[in-house]
Amino acid sequence: MAEAPEIEQTVLKEGYLYKQGGGFRSWKKKWCVLKESALIYYVKKGDAKPRRVIDLTKGRGVRTKDQCSLQSWPCADAALCFGIADSGRTWFFYGSDGNDVKEWVQHLQGCIEKVGSPTNDWQNDVEGKPESAMSKVFRSTAKQAAKTAQSNIPSTGNKYADGAVSTGLTAAKNQADADPNTSMKDRLKMAGGDAVTGVADTVDNPALSVAANIAKDQIEADDDLSMKQRLALAGGSAVEGVGEVTGVDAVGIAGGVIKDQATADKDASLKERLAIGVGSAAGGIKDSNDDALVQGIAKAVEKGAGDLADRYGQSS
Question: What is the mean pLDDT of residues 139-161?
Answer without folding.
Answer: 71
